[in-house]
Protein 1
Amino acid sequence: MSVFRTKSIEQSIRDTEEPEHELKKNLGALDLIVFGVGVSIGAGIFVLTGQAAASHAGPGIAISFLIAGAACALSALCYAELASAVPVAGSAYTFSFATLGELIAWIIGWDLVLEFTVGAAALATSFSQYLAVILANTPFAIPEALTSADKGIINLPAGLLILGLTAVLVSGVKLSSRINQVVTAIKLAVVLLVIVVGIGFINVANWSPFIPPAQGTSSDGNPGLHTPLIQTLFGMEPTTFGIGGLFSAAAVVFFAFIGFDVIATTAEETKNPQRNLPIGILGSLAIVTVLYMAVSLVITGMRPYTDIDPADGAPLATAFTAVGAPWVGGIIAAGACIGLIVVAMILFLGQTRVGFAMARDGLLPAPLARVHPRFRTPHRITIIAGIVIAVIATFVPLTTLAELVNIGTLAAFVVVSLGVIVLRRTRPDLPRAFRVPFVPVIPILAVLICLYLMLNLTGGTWIRFLVWMGLGIIVYFTYSRKHSVLARREREVTSRQ
């Protein structure tokens, strides 16, 4: 049995019509744009903006967002074409199955499970940090021992949040979408408040130098683990800032741009997916890129980047407090706290849809692909995933989680970009509501930029990623390869012969 057997696009679409696997179509173009914007306005803008400016890029963080946004834009074009041609749940996993074969599909599906699981946990962790800011100096203040797995013992609010979101997601995607629309409106209002009010506090001198000169950095005795892999591979001295710092920051803040990736996982729940998916993917990406660059310019203009604490879990709120506008900081903390709830929910949603698609193909246990008889949601995998994510959010620090999400996302983007080239050659006849221009140039550029950003993540992140992927290979050859739906069909054909 070939590990590179492909699942036809026609079969993938037929599988979505089986009663026990059929998801309810509720989402339109506006729903998808809001989903994309909603998931992107989260830890990236409320937490990582300040941290990346302080540790990697200084005021040049705006350029880092532009670099990350450009990489995403190229990959987004590829996602839009494949999502319009293959409107099936599973995102990059499903696209890979149709183009590169079962083994590659399994690897990328396993990778997406990591991306969305860890991403949801990371956002829940960020929620807990802002909640602590809001409740500080009140009778309801939460001890640090219970709000940080890094500085304290556990992150209890993060774990409880995920368990609550599990109940919401089981009850239906439309409810999730409505909650997201309301909360996204609140987050947009908060972001616009940051930009409009923050402009009045900008000191242009804080932007000089805009790209701080490269500086040596301590390796803590483990240069290979705590410095970008590209420096370790080429024997460079560990540095921060400078041009290298811009790319290191871009690799870190890439976490902020994973919204359109989640949109692709909702293909089966989208009305007229051939039209609405490309609109949702490209529209949300354009909006958040502009917002991120504006906010990064404001925060580095308000405070010297050297005054930003890299460990600050609420840097936007702290920035306004530092310039004598604590009321704005309070609004930001409240808006971020509410907003991060929805970001965690959407990433959680993406994880369950990828797992659902893999279970329907037999690569994960088939019972996980059953949908709830009333809510028509994949309730079994949602409950299991909720418990796992809650445990991770409770015990693992944010920085570790964010970098794991980034490397998983970039790996998925590489595969999707290659998938466009392959599908153009193998299925030129396939209807495509959206077509990537200048193929293969744009997909190849997307691959090269994503690979370069991956090399700018730390050696420790690469080790954790490769261990996870190695575990996935073991699971595939011991379970998934034998239980695959395609494998069963091959055995049936062989037995009839």
Note: The CA atoms of residues 56 and 245 lie 5 Å apart.
Protein 2
Amino acid sequence: MDTNDFRRARSPQAKQQREAAILDAARALGAEHGIRQVTLTDIATAVGMHKSALLRYFETREEIFLRLTAADWQEWAPVLCTEIDRVDDGDAAGVATAFARTLAARGMFCDLLAQAPMNLERNVSVEAVRAFKLVTLTAVGAIVTAVRARLPELTEADGVDLMAAATSMAGTFWQIATPGPEVAALYRDDPRLAHAIVDVEPRLARILTAMLEGVIGQRAGRWPGR
């Protein structure tokens, strides 16, 4: 769309449509290039706006991507809860696999999870952060409830620890697994660097399984713990 075609939204409905178009453009650019590479100008150009016009809808690029992160939390949580509901009672590995599978399938979300605490929450208003945190709080609560229904030995705090570990590692592993083309070629060509090639899903599943089985073992008194 040419920027000359842009007309300022006049009605609430038109404003919502314009915001949705901005978010869709940012999502497409982020998925193609990575969140860090996308500028506010890139988003404005993709929508067919001047940058100054886009700033009427979002204050910063970080606010745009923080909104996308919140939307992805809202999409992921019910999907993960459904997967956990299918796991047998007491199956820690099954719960861990559900986390790993659903996160690894959402590369853009993993990228956002890594960027949110480092960048996206740091150049937005306090109210934008509050709105984002309330969305994540609701999602975490639903997921922890689903986990504890299958693994009743876990406390609420254990469930929150699991959420923190899963999302932070997913974000980190995705960054490691998606280097630039030249670095990716280096890893493939030099056998000494093979360890740097990360397959997100199995590694995340292994670590979360070990974490859950360890906590459950402590709760059952099979070995000393907290």
Note: The chain has ten helices and no strands.
